[in-house]
């Protein structure tokens, strides 16, 4: 079996809980609309805007890998429904993006990331639009890959193989770590990577071929990698 030479890593719900940031981002947009475009805010309260976003996703399946584009279309359509053709898309996107990236890491994440980055390269693979530079973690990553840039989303093998190419490694030399059984574990396994299910909730595996490894948090992963490196593989 090949030694592990690099880590690929999911971001949302692996290094931080994403839902609080997404909810706050929606509220930031809503507050701005109430102040600057109260007519739009009245017609499109948070729940209605969320439903419109889901409708846009269904109608634009070719953008299933690009959440940013989907959200910008949602803003444009919300304003058009109020008779406003010149929607402040960039301003609202900037508000949303800043709040969406104002995440609070799980307590174990930063120290574990620093330990792992000192051992081997880390590549992020995310379907979302988290920005590691905004969050302040980019210095710990060799490469950052997201679905928008790759043109495909997890679990498509192509996004994992793009990480292997960036690293110059065979897929079997890479350990992919993530919380989502289908997107992360099954997807990475089908691309030929080794897999870790980061199971913070203590759930039971029921999704087909089991992951190679399962850990409760990033600290457990760092400890395992420490031991693995110490024994030469």
Task: Present the secondary structure layout.
Elements: E1 6-9, H1 19-36, H2 38-43, H3 46-59, H4 67-80, H5 89-100, H6 109-119, E2 122-126, H7 132-135, E3 143-146, H8 147-150, H9 157-167, E4 174-178, H10 181-190, E5 194-198, E6 213-215, H11 218-230
Parallel strand pairs: 1-2, 1-4, 2-3, 4-5, 5-6
3D architecture notes:
It is elongated and about 65 Å long. The relative contact order is 0.17. It has 233 residues and is α/β, with parallel strands linked by helices. It has helices spanning 19-36, 38-43, 46-59, 67-80, 89-100, 109-119, 132-135, 147-150, 157-167, 181-190, 218-230, and strands at 6-9, 122-126, 143-146, 174-178, 194-198, 213-215. Strands 3-2-1-4-5-6 form a six-stranded parallel beta sheet, with helices on both faces.
How many β-strands, per DSSP? 6
Named CATH topology of the largest domain: Rossmann fold
What's the overall geometry?
A: elongated
CATH superfamily of the largest domain: HAD superfamily/HAD-like
Based on CA atoms alone, the radius of gyration comes out at: 19 Å
Domain count: 2
CATH class of the largest domain: Alpha Beta
Order of helices and strands: EHHHHHHEHEHHEHEEH
Low-confidence residue ranges: none
Query: Which band does the percent of strand residues land in?
Result: 5-15%
The number of helical segments is 11
CATH architecture title of the largest domain: 3-Layer(aba) Sandwich
The biggest beta sheet reads: 6 strands, parallel
In angstroms, what separates the terminal alpha carbons? 9 Å
- The helix/strand class is alpha/beta
Mean of residue pLDDT values: 95
As laid out across the biggest beta sheet, the strand order is: 3-2-1-4-5-6
Question: What share of the residues lie within helices?
Answer: 40-55%
């Amino acid at each position: 079996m090949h030694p592990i030479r690099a880590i690929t890593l999911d971001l949302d719900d692996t290094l931080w809980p994403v839902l609080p940031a997404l909810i706050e981002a929606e509220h930031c947009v809503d507050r701005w609309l109430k102040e600057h475009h109260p007519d739009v805010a009245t017609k499109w309260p948070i729940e209605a805007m969320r439903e419109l976003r889901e409708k846009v996703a269904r109608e634009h399946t070719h953008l299933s890998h690009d959440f940013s584009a989907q959200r910008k279309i949602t803003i444009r359509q919300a304003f058009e429904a109020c008779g406003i053709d010149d929607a402040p898309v960039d301003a609202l996107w900037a508000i949303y993006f800043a709040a969406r990236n104002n995440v609070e890491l799980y307590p174990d994440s930063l120290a574990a990331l620093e330990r792992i980055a000192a051992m081997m390269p880390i590549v992020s693979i995310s379907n979302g639009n988290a920005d590691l530079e905004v969050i302040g973690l980019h210095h710990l990553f060799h490469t950052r890959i997201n679905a928008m840039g790759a043109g495909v989303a997890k679990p498509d093998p192509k996004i994992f193989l793009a990480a292997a190419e960036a690293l110059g490694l065979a897929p079997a030399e890479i350990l992919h770590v993530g919380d989502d059984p289908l997107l992360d574990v099954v997807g990475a396994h089908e691309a030929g990577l080794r897999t870790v299910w980061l199971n913070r909730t203590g759930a039971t595996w029921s999704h087909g071929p089991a992951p190679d490894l399962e850990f409760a948090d990033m600290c457990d992963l760092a400890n395992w990698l420490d031991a693995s490196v110490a024994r030469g593989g």
